[in-house]
What does this fold into?
Amino acid sequence: MSTINGTGTTQTEIKLYNTKTRRKEVFEPIKADDVRMYVCGPTVYDRAHLGNARPVIVFDVLNRLLRHVYGADHVTYVRNFTDVDDRINETAQKRKAAGADGTLEELIAERADETIDWYHQDMDALGALRPDYEPRATAFIGQMIAMIEGLIASGHAYAAEGHALFAVESYKEYGALSGRSVDDMIAGARVEVAPYKRNPMDFVLWKPSPDDLPGWESPWGRGRPGWHIECSAMAHELLGESFDIHGGGNDLQFPHHENEIAQSKCAGHGFANVWMHNEMLQVEGKKMSKSLGNFFTVRDLLEQGVPGEVIRFVMLSTHYRKPMDWTEKKRAEAEGELEKWALFTKDAVAAVDVPAGVVEALANDLNTMGAITELRRLSKAGAYSELLAGLSFLGLNLPKISSQDEEIFDDLVEREEVRPLIDALVDRLVKARADKDFVVADGIRDDLLNAGISLSYDSGGDVTITKEANYDRSKLEALK
Ligand code: AMP
Ligand code: ZN
It folds into this structure.
């Protein structure tokens, strides 16, 4: 759908689901030439797990769409790094105890730096564009202190025993984002009851640092900020008093985003207009967790040889507001589809314009599955230049196709239809050989030979497939 804007050109109308109003709404930026988005980023204590990649990919697609519609120079995307955290400190303390060079402060900074480097490498591999600003919390402590001072001065916060706390009763709309009352929240949440809190729901803006850990001087003593105030202060500093979109995972809605809203609104800021939340990622139908043994990082997958674009494609095949399940089956299907497209488009040049159907699908609350359906339609229609343009808009690079694939099947349709069968047979053969089940392995080899497909193995275990003169497609298909 399009509307005519002030300059007379047509502009795509974007609809986004706003958690705050629980409705899909037409997106109207505060200023069309200055669209601003803040997304909560990672706590940089270790490698990103696969779940952490979901908001990165979801909001990367939104960033690309906003840039397409409003112009790349008219969009500012901020995603922070939380580099104040006990888990970062613990690694640094362990390294120091093991004799590492440098002060504890230096070792803490080193751990945050290395984790940020990993994050960049991993998210780059997923085709995510870097945000315009990636602020580190430790670079904005002064702004956090100033904001807390203002909240205390206006009666929304108080100091007690080296802490500064936000008084939730001072903000009538506390809980509105997630639709909870303060009483519900007290009943349902694991709130820390502490003698210095006036209300158990009051949350920490500032807390003392133990003597053996780094801290910053403040009006409340030497200490460090609470997590929530970091985002409020950085969003204000980089995006101003009001901005358009605030994003993050569903798990952050409460308490993190409720607290961000309470702080920023009570500081007199308009804060974010649209709140967007991605649902969680699961693995083979189960929550990803270390105790279930199904926890893995993005780097683990990349090292197993799963290309970044395959991970991205699987992520895009589920709508961001639905729980998404990572499965081996989806991985294999995505890999097959991308390889097929790589082959189809190998001689094509990307069209200049992004296919309208792709933009339209994304403009409908990031309907990435709809965009993929459109890519499939273009592929079937043989519109390979448009297919390439659509893929590139979605941030999907295609795998390199080996020349061997091209030689075996010059007929692309035949390759598409027959190659999965050959691959499945070869996989079974390789597995049988690994299991020392040579009867089965040799049987498959002979069946393939009979259909005109010969195999040879190199020392690294790679299998080369050759189409022989006696190749007979019907014999091959009889092996299904
Ligand atoms: P964290 O470093 O835990 O603060 O998380 C960084 C980002 O990843 C936040 O936006 C979280 O909401 C998101 N996130 C964490 N776990 C998952 C998951 N399993 N699925 C989707 N998003 C997640
Ligand atoms: Zn945040």
Summary: The CA atoms of residues 251 and 372 lie 27 Å apart. The chain has three domains: 27-278, 282-393, 403-477.
